Amino acid sequence: xxxxxxxxxxxxxxxxxxxxxxxxxxxxxxxxxxxxxxxxxxxxxxxxxxxxxxxxxxxxxxxxxxxxxxxxxxxxxxxxxxxxxxxxxxxxxxxxxxxxxxxxxxxxxxxxxxxxxxxxxxxxxxxxxxxxxxxxxxxxxxxxxxxxxxxxxxxxxxxxxxxxxxxxxxxxxxxxxxxxxxxx
Length: 184
Prior knowledge:
Elements: E1 3-8, H1 10-27, E2 34-39, H2 43-58, E3 64-67, E4 98-106, H3 110-122, E5 127-135, E6 147-151, E7 158-163, H4 165-168, E8 172-177
Parallel strand pairs: 2-3, 2-4, 4-5, 5-6
Antiparallel strand pairs: 1-8, 7-8
């Protein structure tokens, strides 16, 4: 898969997460009862980046949880016979808390729907907001992010590739075409 354009480099991701951090503080009038929940996989390091920046600004740590939505997906039967389970780690109550779900890319909205379902099985938050690094459009559900790093209009034949150093050795966002298999 060849990248056809670089949308963000490491500095661009840092600027976007910094801006999102400030917007979260402003919209929530501080950080009282605030929790960040990263959606496995790349939403987790992004949530940690945002939490770190909020901590620097507010002088107080924000709890970060990890949410695995694998069993809440509406396409579970279409995945591999043995899907990879990364695990949920939310070691605190989410009841009556302000939750900011964090993910790398929003596309159809189905991942976010699954994440909300998973959260509701854990507890009853006061409110749930959504922060994404990239909004690529093409929603199939009435879900929209509260905080967006960058809007990137795409065709359905394109992919957004978010690379995070924790998994990929670099921080960047690129766009590429979906490879199609041509019959002989």
